[in-house]
Amino acid sequence: MKKVALSLALSLSLALTGCKYDVDLGLGPGIKGDGNVVTENRNNSTPFTAIEISRGLDLEVTQSADASITVIADKNLQDHISTAINNGVLTITSDVNIGNASSKKIVVKLPNITSLQASSAASITGTGTIKSQNLGLSTSSAGGIDLNVESDNLTLESSSGSSMRLKGKALKLDIDTSSGSVVNAESLLANDVICDASSGSSIEVQPLVSLNANASSGSHVSYRGTPKQVSKDASSGGSITLQ
After folding, report:
1. Beta carbons of 33 and 66 less than 8 angstroms apart
2. Around Cβ 179, how many Cβ atoms within 10 Å?
3. Do 90 and 52 contact (CB within 8 A), yes or no?
4. What share of the chain is helix, strand, coil (3-state, %, to 5)?
5. How far, in Å, CA of 168 to CA of 152, rounded?
6. Maximum distance among all alpha carbons in the chain?
7. Is 56 strand, coil or helix?
8. What gap in Å lies between CA 50 and CA 59, rounded to an integer?
């Protein structure tokens, strides 16, 4: 039953980030798209390896030798969507709450990726596999990430009703979830997994060698496979189960 509830919560969160419903995110004055979708190439002369996106915008990221930033959005939204690079971080946001829009998508290509963050109902998806020695992924406030990754050291942080769905491979995987968030990484093969779930959050993993799991305050950790070493600590209504 918990697996069904987790899957439903993850699907709902990821679906809402990409839909066209006129949702008030509580982020101030709103605007609707005019239906005239145009493409605009943005300045990417400054190098960056991290991306932060917020305010219900949709990011499609691709690892590529050549960097580019392209905004595909309703014409009247283009001036409201900003893409600024500072200290190696590309920040994508809007100065208004965007409601119903034909498109509010930003396509980013870059050679090296170290960090991706989605917040305030924004979404991040990818084409191909994201490969990085050290990669950090973060979601909060109903943000969503759906990626295929390969990393030596992969760190995931999810909070406040946000979600992640990950596939791929990792040598070391560290997951921290809280406040009703969901991380589905059962299709991510990882040698060593450390996970900490709290406050009604949920984690699904597939450790190959070792698992160190903590679950508290109504949270749930489930794992599949037969790791050689398993350390479990469940408290305050938390649970840790083998699928």
Report:
1. no
2. 17
3. yes
4. 10, 60, 35
5. 11
6. 57
7. coil
8. 13
Instruction: Indicate the SS3 state at residue 136.
Output: strand
State the Cα–Cα distance between residues 71 and 195, nearest whole angstrom: 36
Residue 51: which of 34, 68, 33, 37 has the closest Cα? 68
Q: Do residues 28 and 97 make contact, with C-beta atoms less than 8 angstroms apart?
A: yes
Q: DSSP string spanning 98-123?
A: E-S-S-EEEEEEES---EEEE-TT-E
Spatial CB neighbours of 8, under 8 Å, sequence gap ≥ 6: none
Distance CA 239, CA 221 (A): 6
The one-letter code for the residue type at 153 is N
pLDDT tens-digit map of 160-189: 999 999 999 999 999 999 999 999 999 999
207: its two tokens: 């450790």
Reduce the DSSP state of residue 160 to 3 states and report it: coil
Rounded to the nearest integer, the mean pLDDT of the chain is: 92
The model's pTM:
0.89
Q: Which fold has domain 2-20+29-242?
A: Pectate Lyase C-like (2.160.20)
Mind listing the pLDDT tens digit for each residue in 19-42? 443 444 555 568 999 999 999 999
With residue 127 as reference, give the H or E element that holds it. strand 123-127
> At CA 162, angle to CA 156 and CA 168, rounded to 5?
40
144 token code pair:
């969503």
